[in-house]
Amino acid sequence: MSGVVPVPPRGIARRIAVFLDFDGTLVEIAPRPDAIVVPLGLSRLLGDLAQATGGATALLSGRPISDLDRWLAPLRLAAAGCHGAELRRRPDGPAEPAAAPCCPDRWLELATRLAARHPGALVERKPFGFALHARACPGALPELRDALAALVAEDRRFRLLHAHMAVEVLPRGVHKGAALAALLDQPPFAGRVPIAIGDDVTDEDALAEARARGGHGYRVGESFRDPGAVRAWLAAVAREAGHAPAA
Ligand SMILES: O=P(O)(O)OC[C@H]1O[C@H](O[C@H]2O[C@H](CO)[C@@H](O)[C@H](O)[C@H]2O)[C@H](O)[C@@H](O)[C@@H]1O
Question: Which pathway is it part of (predicted)?
Fold first, then answer.
């Protein structure tokens, strides 16, 4: 279910597995992917939450896992990167690539040339594909979308993902719902009630999977208002379990 998220009830951290989107959920959206401001204390908060949940806290992001590690250093969590195209089952484990194809270099070259024609457009390369960002040139988004749609129509192994002011090429079958399911099938996540939180259409598969598995899928805008409120709720969960400083 979505709707307003309840005040964390007593003992909740012992029962839940937490799956968190990153951009727009834990950190505010910024003009460019590299311009985010990671709040002071976010790493500490997520570390406290991971301890409180017995390690059952994971990130499900469109960013590569290496990028998440860089922003949250020294913290490492279990994580899915590139919308599930990479999976790190344990904080100290490897980032396993999905058995999926990489998009043709030619597509990336075309996207780069296309971006050069639209001041402000930005290509973000990822292990299996790329995102084409248009936050600085919103008027160009329809043209960028159409151009990438024509590319993926050449090869059914790929699909387009429509994200926040961006469009992304990624392998078909990769999505955050499958990543959540894979983590939830193994310790320390297995047997816990999944709570997934996300802000974008790219999170909907994970929210649906959490609900289908007897848990909750919360949209930031509907249930929390903004990332600050998400962080406050997560801190309350950790605090209730004695794993975070008093508010
Ligand atoms: O699944 P997420 O963790 O939310 O990642 C989704 C994408 O986030 C980043 O792009 C988005 O956030 C940028 C910074 O706020 C913003 O400038 C951009 O417009 C958004 O699309 C990231 O760059 C992508 O790789 C992620 O897929």
Answer: Glycan biosynthesis; trehalose biosynthesis
